[in-house]
Fold this protein.
Amino acid sequence: MEILALSGVSKSFPGVKALDDVRLSLRAGEVMALVGENGAGKSTLVKILTGIEKPDAGEILIDGAPVDFGSPFDAWRAGITAIHQETVMFDDLTVAENIHMGHHPTLGRGPFRRFVDWRAMRAHTSAVLARLEVNISPDTVLRELTVAQKHIVGIAKALSHDSRIVIMDEPTAALSQHEIGELYKIVAQLKAAGKAVLFISHKFDELFAIADRWTVLRDGRFIGAGTIGDVTRDELVTMMVGRRLDQVFPKVTVPIGETVLEVEDLSHPTEFDGISFKLGRGEILGFYGLVGAGRSEAMQALFGITRPSRGRVRIAGREITVRNPSDAIRAGIAYVPEDRQIQGAILPMSITENITLPMVDRVNGGPVLRPKRERALARRFGERLAVKATHWDQPVANLSGGNQQKVLIAKWLATDPAVIILDEPTKGIDVGSKAAVHEFMGELVKSGLAVILVSSELPEILGMSDNIIVMHEGRIRRRFRRAEATAEAVVTAATGGA
Amino acid sequence: MTSLRYEVADRRKAAAADFWLRWEVLLLVLLGIVMLVNSRLSPWFLDYYNLLDSTFNFSEKAIMALSMTLIIVTRDIDLSVASIIALASVFMGLAAQAGAGVPLLVLIGLATGLLAGFANGAIITRFQIPAIVVTIGTMSLFRGIAYVVLGDTAITSYPAGFSWFGQSYLVWSIPFEFVLFLVLAAVFGFVLHFTTTGRRIYAIGNNPVAARFSGIPVDRYRLVLFTLNGLMAGLAAVLLTSRIGSTRPNIAAGWELEVITMVVLGGVSIMGGSGTISGVFIAVFVLGMMTFGLSLMNVPGIVMSVFVGVLLIASIAVPILIRRMLRR
């Protein structure tokens, strides 16, 4: 029986069409696998289903009747619950309080009718947890639970008010093998109880283990759907990466010069292990992997933000020790971080102040500020990146995402680096700025810089890189030369396949 | 990309509203009002010698407000400054009882402040504990040591020359303390607004993560600022002890809040990242003159604190209301 049907759903954000005419159907007692690359539109779809975003067009039917979610609360009342890493949980409240957040039982009558009925709440929690056959006390404070147990609390929350549709977004990402087994059991129970489960995962093994049907999205479009028994892993991968709209990348190939950066056995106790690679002048080295594969962490270790447990780094053949970012800057490494607003820009400060910050002493030629010199430098690099602003003293906060990113690249270029690491440089910026950033990467390599491109966008990695390193769970899984890299092979390596 | 160019001006065209909505200008207007009211209420207010002598009441706090400004701009806070004064004063007193000379007393006062401030900064940055928690702790700790050492007694046996720092006048009857404040204000203003150090302090206050990603040793800066703040409290201890000529364990009680009041009234955001030394400089006079005027009218200290409280809350609420009105 079909519980939920989506048809013609579209959603645009400034500069991006996140979803375009997408359909999806969920049946009672079935697990639907939602498959797609990063940026395929899965999270937007989840946000629409949970009432966080409103679709621009399309129809959502529950039991055949159209619904319109004005708020997350509407979706929740309609029986839809999502469990994902960022599920709102209250770490300092108990399991019972978390499960009943927003719908706690009350004493119900008399002067105390608005008071919480703690006894009923605890009993109900115990009952729900018992149904899941897990051993967690309702009075435990959430902070004391493991990630897996927190997921189970999330599921219990879904069960506690009879959700009929449970969305699980990468629920196993942080779980151990044993915990994953427990989760599978619970999914089986949900199925048996007649719930519809939407299961989002990058791990094909688990999709084939628990899903009944599949739907593939790519570039915000519906690609196909069917029963899991009738499809192979390779077919799914092909559908995921597909033949794209001819996205043209302004790839500039310059002969790769002498080795600038040499990394040997860079390791960290938990995040990455045994990372070794060489990077030459004029080379763009792409790092691809799923979220959590350890790419950013490894880059931040190169830049002195995280401390590696072992490993050697050489710049132009000379071994360097990077204890902090200023060591890295001095050695000629620049890092444009993924999180523009928090790690990158100092939003309330001006474009000029942002651009000159990493080398403010060098620009001013001493401890005393010389505004003219600073502005000249900001103008030189700001214009090189075609930053669109009204004046150079404008706060970076007032710029568009794309222009903020340009300011940040200008900031790091102004440090005159030998190696520039771009971590997700086009994430969440408009198409025009994206093209400008890609084009600019060509200019960088022409001027002899070595570029590391960390990206979760497959076309970008394939389109821009000379060489590609694919990481999986903290290790380098495979290396590709540009010519031999295919979308299928790269995705397979990133998901842990051969 | 070279084909794509935008015309970007060097700076924004200045508008009249920029000037009139500056916090410093509003404070100057407020100061003018306070002066006007005071001169109407008391015929002695505008007396040259009276006015200069009134600076004795706030110079020591004002000196501490300068370094406290840097602390608050970097999103930290130091509640232990008044207790540092007590601690430094006690050590100076003990040294004086043991027969130490004036230079050694000054050195002990400054060194105690420096070390206490360093202790604050070291605990905060080493263990990554919020400054408010650590300095509430050291506030009790330092003051507690003073009480343990002195009990109910007071030390008054300071050498004759020691009174110079807190009681002497320079040219034109200007108190030494006040001159010291003016000089230090100029130095702090220069460092915060015209040097790369000041730029980094603002960067840390606006976004400590991005500051770190830009190569700024954030924790080292914080440690140095707490040490400096301790040193300034040590200096205030020398001046205050010299001025009143005695040490009691409750010396400078409650001053930490008065110092922070000066900074906040001066337009320094308690969330960090913004504020100027000139704003704090003017706020020092607003508060100083208001207190002076009220005392000329024999208003008791308890009532004064009511005025200060109202002024502080109004100074934060009014700009928010104005901004809301402008947005409409």
Remarks:
- The radius of gyration of chain A is 25 Å.
- Chain A touches chain B through 45 residues (CB under 8 Å).
- The first helix of chain A runs from residue 42 to 49.
- The first strand of chain A starts at residue 2 and ends at 13.
